[in-house]
Amino acid sequence: MSSATVFETALLVSQVQRQALADDGFTLVRLGGLVLGGVLVAGGVGGLHRWYARTRVPDGLSVLAGISVVAIGLSTQEVLTNTTSRGGEVEPNAVLLNVGTFLVATVATLLAGRAGDRVAQSVFDDAPDARDIVRAVGRQITVTLPETIDDMPDYDPVAPETRTRLEGASFGFPRRLTVDELRSRLVERLTTDYEVGHVDVDLADDGTVEYLALGSRAAGIGPTLPPGQAAVAVRADPASTASPGDLVQVWDPPERVVTGELRGVAGDVATLAVDDADAAALDGETSYRLVTLPSQARVDREFAALFRAADETLAVVGVTDDGTLAGRTVGSLPVAVVAVRAADGSVETLPDDSRALAPGETLFVVARPDVLRKLDAGEGSVAATPSDD
């Protein structure tokens, strides 16, 4: 083979390689453009949903909208063409490239939807004048929070920065809502967007906030422990499938030490909830063996979990001689009475609605904080117990 032929062959190979690199670069740029388009659409959906519905956009909705852009760009015919060679064989590189594009677009559109929601939230929640104009044409109503927000009794206060953001803030809601519906939407907005644990609010018929107090949920394991129990961290080897809530036996072979409830696992350290009397039997230096017991119905645990997630809380109300409860019946109260302790110390659970109340009795009631506050104003002896306890 002559030197001229070799040179021409090398030149041809070089041109083919440059063309392949150019095609690959164009493909990457085109796919990047599709992902960017999906991100913009997902962010726009997040902002539009916040502007119209005044709630956070569902992640699935923003991802679906963004992925649709990528799917349209990568049409079915084009995808099949790029992933199949002329002989009908599948090209793995093209398949991986398309699958990778969808994966990247999914993550990017998820983050874009949340970012669009955050941007729209900051714009609309910090622009009360614009919302007042919209309200004037009848599309929505505006609820303005007081300049001073109170703390809820018996609850931890909210973070100072959260209180500063909320004092004097305005929120827009759709019109044609009843007072109760508007109150529920406002409470949902505060608990969801600002991570407020408890809200006590009174609204007038025109949507004006007459009273507002906030409280945060107690953090940690302490509020979830029932009376007479303590949390203890021990070195142990729980089963790989064991999870918080399982009933376990603690063994220091060959003896069983205590029986408790598994609350958490971090490496070789397990946190257990045991009776106060059994806590001293556990040694922090000893490595124990945990035996998971068969699952059984735990009505108390289910009730506690539901109660912690509810808006209602538990309170103890004393019936006094000069109060408004003496002589009234259980069914006439705006609260749910779960038990009545008589003056002689006897306890009646789930009393009948026709049962009359007498001075010196104590009621255990469940109601929203605002209802308990009004009951407190009339009776003057309400001791609230946060639902986290």
Description:
It contains ten helices and 15 strands. The radius of gyration is 32 Å and the shape is flat. It has four domains: 3-125, no CATH class; 132-215, no CATH class; 222-296, no CATH class; 301-385, Alpha-Beta Plaits. Helices cover 42% and strands 23% of the residues. The chain is of the alpha+beta class and 389 residues long. The model is unreliable at 10-17, 127-137 and 380-384 (pLDDT under 50). The protein has a five-stranded mixed barrel. The chain has helices at 3-53, 59-73, 76-83, 92-125, 128-136, 160-166, 179-193, 276-279, 299-309, 369-379, and strands at 140-144, 150-151, 170-174, 198-203, 209-215, 229-236, 247-252, 255-266, 269-275, 287-292, 313-318, 336-341, 347-349, 362-367, 382-385. A hairpin with a 2-residue loop joins strand 8 (255-266) and strand 9. Helix 1 (3-53) packs parallel to helix 4.
Features:
389 residues, alpha+beta, 4 domains, five-stranded mixed β-barrel, five-stranded antiparallel β-sheet, 10 helices, 15 strands, 23% strand
